[in-house]
Amino acid sequence: MTITRIPRWLIGVAALALAVAGVFAWRATQGRAVEVVSPSPTRLTQTVVVSGRVLAPAKVEIGATITGRVVSVAVDDGDRVAAGQTLVRLETAELSAALAQAVASERTAETRIRQWSSVGAPNAREQLAQAEANERLAQAELDRQDALFRQGFIGQARLDETRRTLAVARSQAAAARSTASANRDDGAERALLDDQVAQARATRVAAAARLAQATIAAPAAGVVLDRSVEPGNIAQPGRTMLTLSLDGPTRLVAPIDEKNLAVLAIGQRAVASADAYADRRFEAVLESLSPGIDAQRGTVEAKFSVPAPPAYLRADMTVSIDVAVADKERALVLPAAGVRDLSAPEPWVLVVRGGLAHRTGVRIGARTSTQVEIVAGLEPGAAVVVDPAVAPGERVRAR
What we know:
This protein has helices at residues 8-30, 93-151, 156-182, 188-212; strands at 32-34, 36-37, 40-55, 58-63, 68-73, 80-81, 86-90, 215-217, 222-227, 234-235, 240-246, 251-257, 269-274, 282-289, 299-305, 318-335, 348-353, 356-361, 363-367, 371-376, 384-385, 396-398. The strands form six sheets. The chain has a six-stranded antiparallel β-barrel with strand order 3-12-15-14-13-16. It has a four-stranded antiparallel beta sheet with strand order 4-11-9-6, with no helix packed on it. A four-stranded antiparallel beta sheet has the order 8-7-5-10, with no helix packed on it. Helix 2 (93-151) runs antiparallel to helix 3 and helix 2 packs antiparallel against helix 4 (188-212). By secondary structure, it is an alpha+beta fold. The protein is 34% helix and 33% strand.
């Protein structure tokens, strides 16, 4: 009986196949290989990046308070102006004439007072003295005529005539007393003259004010943002001729997503750059947060002070602002991809233990776009699964 010998190469192939099958069977018991990361202490700086603009300290629209033709405009767009500097002049011929007329009326009213003091008041006193003297004479004459009438020397007609004369004298005296009273320093005549002077003076002040309004000056130092008037135009109240950006502290304003409110605090430092000068950065400080929320956009308005503003900053420039909300020297950090439900109230991770992926709740602190600080729930060196396809309880092995 002939026994067929198995070739050695075939035995080798069979052994190799058995070995490969054994490896696959072992790997099947160990679970699939997954990428893992371990939290490690490192420095973590959390920033909130927002886009905002340069806030002008005050933007003022300059216009006329009277109607008039523009004679000259002394500034142009971009010019720097000082407080009180003349910007626009209106024609003044009619206004100057009105002021001259008001000045003349005031002088006339003052002249009437001087005339009253030198003529009117003394005449009133003299007329009173004369009227009172006439009254006394008429009274004496009546007494004499009454005695003669009782003695029978004169008739009733003569006595009645004397009485009428006394009545006229008394009436004249009363009128003279009223005139003299009115012409005292505190009398009605003097008060009327004083009122005329006051009215004339008010008219003169109003005319001077209107003349002054023909010269339009800068209310404070600043820069001309826009000029919309030319000589010959008719200026009218309510129509803007110039727009000024007044000098003052430079500030930035930006809308920040309300979800960042928990990490924002007054006094936090920021680094900003204007989009037009992206390679130049300057410091800013969070100065205030609006107490209200924009319900439509879900943002809160933040304002930043700029301690040393660069010269190239202009009002309404677009800027990017990086607010440093946290800076920790030795934070336990994981890649953001390793944390599940990162924005949920209870984030969690998958930790490889005993060949299984165990769900473990964590508490997070500072975070960036790529890294997350683990405050509680993990120890340094833990194997955290990064693959989002791995489910809790799945058999895995760290790769």
